[in-house]
Amino acid sequence: MRAEQAARERRRRIAWWSGGGAVVAVVVAIVLIVSLGSSGSGKSAGSGHEVMPPGVGSGAADVQPPALVVTNPTTIKGVVAYDTTGWPTTSNNGPADKALQHNHVDGPVTYAVTPPVGGDHNATWMNCGVYDKPVPTERAVHNLEHGAIWITYQPSLPQSTVDQLRAFESKQTIVSKTGSRYVDVTPFPGLPAPIVISSWGFQLRVNSATDPRLQQFVNAFRSNSKYTPEYGGPCTGGVGTPLQS
Fold this sequence. Notes:
Helix content: 25-40%
Shape: globular
Low-confidence stretches: 14-47
Number of domains: 2
């Protein structure tokens, strides 16, 4: 009797594997493979691999002097320009003794402009890209010195607007031979406008992520030998791992 039951059980298992059971097993295997592949897919938005750039420590702050506003050299309405004479050396837009400072300092810096458009900064830059938390300003300013564009936004903005800014970053071209878009997107507490876009010595405030002047600003100032103090400086090889780069 037991032998007959065992034989029936074997026949039932064989019939299951030859039918739908095999299909189910294959589907499960495919799902596992896809999941494992996705877990190592890189720095795509929402991948969970973000590493925030480290802070610069504490101590007495390096207080930057007031920044001197000069004439906007572009046709982009609303751009505020600051004196950068001597940085780069081809720049000649104001008195040299009022130009934005550019020294490497170890500790915190108190900037005269919010968000900063230049000044003393940390010796180690951060890897360019999108971060979902505020980044150390002293590292972001070093990125500006290398020609990066810094898009900051009020943390209270709706996620839909933040997503638009991230999509804006992802559509920018890679700067030739660098592997980077030279664009940072981060929240910034205490921002004087919903969105502020900055480069070394230039800044623009906007209310919308679809304002066409954002792209005009990028086109004018990103990694531009005319305006970038350390033209050709890297936007990779620093600290931090962005959500998307």
